[in-house]
Records
---
Amino acid sequence: MPELPETETIARDLDREIAGRRIVGIRVLHADVLRIVTRHALARRLRGATIERCWRRAKLVVLDLSTGDKLVVQPRFTGALLIDAGALPDIERRYTTVELALDDGRVLRYRDIRRLGTVALMSVDQFARYESSLGTEPLDQAFTAPHLSALVRGRRQAIKKVLMDQRVIAGVGNIYANEALWRARIDPSRAAGDLDDGSVSALRDALTAVLRESIAHRGTSFRDYRDASGARGRFVDHLAVYGHAGEPCLRCGRRLIGTHAIDGRMTVLCAHCQR
């Protein structure tokens, strides 16, 4: 599933490429990805609107429109927002669910192979209510070690589960929770409230660092994630633990452990390094 670095990459690409463009046509090929809005209402409210800004919130890509509406896309497992100037491979076009024709002749396609992602059109008030349920952004300046300490204080859940709770910290999923905890030398199963100040500070630094590094490499692609031009993310070559269960730990050489015991998702850790 695209996490913060992947959706941030897509949003930056879109903002650079299509901000200021006007939507002149809408085609919905698979309406089951739509939320809050019907096929006909989407076409009516989008036609003629100008895309003013593209940005990210949590794991969402948000397009601010001149009408005041917000087009909110959650790619989930196999979704991608692709700019098609005529050279997009047919394999990518094949799974288009929604396409927006732009006034410069290009097409913005929402491609979703498994159609588990969503496309919603929200008013300002609808988006404000939706956003209020999301947690703090880990790349905001306000996300300091004391702030993280306040977020985890008193929580008995495993720290990995807390990191992935979108109501607490927005945008972090399985890949970067694994990576940050390995970097911070913290056992993913430790109760979040038991972390001391030193561990919290190390975790905050590790989390922000791995997120920024992944953005610099345009995200992580294992199979389905693509940026707005259809290219793969390169951070997969820099992962220390995720996807490497059974291999030697890069820090101590001990064999990495893979388990589903903590939160039902694959957790990879070094039992020697992470305490």
---
Amino acid sequence: MKFVEVIDGDVGMLQSTGPDDKITTERLHPSRFATRLRDINRLPIRVLKVAKAAPDLSRAADVTVDKKTYHVLNYRDSGLAAALYIDSFNNLPERVTYTEDDPIYGDTVNEIAFSDFKDRDGVRLPDTISTSLNGKKIREEHIRTLINNPKYDEASFAIPADVRSQPEVGEHIVSQWPLRRVIIGVGYEEFGREQKVQLDPLAPGVYHVTGGSHHSLAIEMKDHIIVVEMPLFEERSLAVIKALEEKIPGKPVKYAVLTHFHNDHSGGMRAYAAKGATLYVHESIVPFAEDVLGRPHTVRPDSLAKAGGNKGSVEGVGDAGKTLTDGDRTVQIFTVPNGHAAGMLAVYLPKEKLVFVSDLYTPGTPVQPGDPNAVALFTAITKANLSVDRIAGGHGGVGPFKDLQKVGSVAKTGS
């Protein structure tokens, strides 16, 4: 991955280099822009000035950590509560914390810590910078070479007029969530933007919920709806729920199935809990789901926080699977042992001969024969003796089972 970000006043620009070395230039996503500004404001060469300029700057009580005493300054920056910890011995800033929102973790302490200070041309700067979320380190940077006041090309910081004129689409949400997505090279663009929801009929009362990067499956029962997959974040789930209420009025979402715990597939489950839905997850990740539902969301209150919490419930699905039926339509939840994610679930509709799965197989996308995830799904389907005609994906579209069979049966048959 290679990208360049340029910020000039209230405009940001992103230059991305693709696998074909083609460079794409566009306006920086509003949330990515706002989060980068926060990161600039907490750099060691800037954080003291930012804190000093804050109108609400206040001195808190000193704290002692690992026998070291810190002076603590509280203030707000980028709309968030910030705290600066200064070593009482050498008066160097060693930690800065911001309390921000995260779709999964809710109120999240985002901390940057500085250590290994060295003199650089009369300025003491850290050679080690680490970032943690709720006490868990997610990044550590070691500086080998640092040049103060280097010569640079002023033109390289210019943002072209056509980029400046591009509309800014989305909210200025300061959150590590989009940056975590950026750093692993996956989509984040829907964050903080209006959601597009499309209900593609697969059978009477069965809809592939598309319109974005992550899809769901909606199944109409006699007096309720079952939704499979609750991806991304609160806004996506609310948009899907609204679309279903308009399409199938009078039938609430009673059950929702989480295929696996990865953040981009579980970030929207609190919205379904707020509606009182029972959430089905693999039994091994029940503690994870319950923890997500129990976390406080006060920085950006979501629907569950506004509902007072404790609305939905979580039920574990074991290796034997789970069957839901209203006497007419049957929905089977089954497990898929695999190497991508522990506690993976998929859903099968016997009458429609349809399977919904996320990540392990993406219909319409080229897959190499013998791909381990495709093999895992094919093995789970054949082991359970499921009669399948089509597969709908949490990504991609809907494809014939024979396409999976071609790539997933190779390792088993040796053909």
---
Amino acid sequence: MHSSKRARKITGTGGKDKTVVMGMLERGGEVRVSVVDNRRKKELQKQVREHVEVGAAILSDELKSYEGLETDYQHAVINHAIEYVNGNVHTDGMENFWSLLKRGLHGTYVSMEPYHLFRYLDEQAFRFNHRLDMNDGDRFRLAVKHIVGKRLTWVELTGKVEETSVN
């Protein structure tokens, strides 16, 4: 991108006008993702304490918001500026999920309202969590089984009221 165009289009830091999503992956288990208000220590640590058992091992990158978790958890940190793996300390599984999510958001869905982001996250987490234990047909049947009897109306989906036609 030409410098004049970059200056016009890109303002602030990389996080400006972006929705914050937090993810946690249990090794050999499931991923959990959610939209969070911000990436500050209070918000992220609240999520960790809500979903992770005290005393468990937590492996993370060097985001300052995770500082202080070592009081209740076995917290190991990987500095991605130096290395991506140090023995058993890495975030590769979660990075894999983010890669698949972004591929879906940019490639399959193309345009998406931030209001619906949690729905896309839920779908991708479901796909990721069941990627090894079933084929696409079985995964589809499982998904349909979970939606039977549930209804999502147009108004709930869009926040818009349907126009009634007058004859």
---
Amino acid sequence: MKKKDPFVKIRPYNDDELPYAINRMLQNSGFIGSLMNFMPDEPLNLLVRSIRKTKTCYDFQKNIFGKMCQTFIDRSIDDLTVAGYDLLNKNKSYLFVANHRDIIMDSAIAQIYLFSQGVRPCRSGIGDNLLSSQVLTDVAKVCNMFTITRTGDARHMVTSSKLVSEYIRQSICEENKSIWIAQRNGRTKDGYDKTQQSVLKMFCFSDRKKNIYDSIRELNIVPLTISYEFEPCDQMKARELILTANNKKYVKAPDEDFKSITTGVFAYKSRVHLQFGEPINDYIDESLTFANDNEKIQYICSLIDRQMYKNYRLWPNNHIAYDILNNSSDFQNYYSEFSKRDFIKHILKQANVVDVSYMQMKQMLYTIYANPIKAAMENKGK
């Protein structure tokens, strides 16, 4: 009798599930439209025939989704640079804990880079709130994504978190498969890439018998930092921060997640840098004394954050925003007058929204871009 798969509800599809997913995707007009838009050099009839012949999820991810993502990159990014991966052990699996600036592009860029290195891509986490239709679910699960529950009562969330934790630990420790996961629930809105303690606690749910340090070491955590010259969805983020501050509770519009996905994919980003960090196992100091496990978790979060702030690529836009906010010229050597005029023009355009004051938007947008400078300064010497 075949053993029941405990992860069937959250895991990516297996190869034997691929034909059914392909049939559903090819019946969806939105998916067909995406093929025509993002793979325009290939005749649609030949492309559909090729997709139907695809035998493995890996081949679909590489040859279809990978090529579509490369089109996103080519159309919205002027220069993409990557560093740090050559210092990692290619035969080892890692838990890449990543800062989260864009819903799709953060993990997609990492996956495209791994393909270019001849390495199998990571399994990557995606919130169930983003899988609002069958076609989105099919694309995600064919492309090696596992589901993280974002909604439900406390009991359901604990059960779901434990299942995800077990899946992550099995992937890394038993299957030697690397994982990409965001350092927080939802994107960074204010420019501070801070790891949520709840995410680290979730990692440990699957290993209650070991102490915190042993549990974390087993997962081989490596911070992964992505830096966009033009912040994805900066207007939407600034608006949400202001409305949240004004009304205390922010309610998403029904199509807001989808709008964030499309805006993040298509909006101009200029330059982007992806930095693979160092395994935090090398930095855990067990001689430090903490009162309880919560303090240990907080300490491990700080190790991840330290690398995030150190490895974040600071662009002229960040320096300009800091100087404008502080009415200073501290960083004027890091940008030109031309780049300053160009950035201010961008901010003034993005500050125009219907339901938030222009001055509030302008201030918040500058703050979002300036905060990585503040984080780097606060982290200096640590």
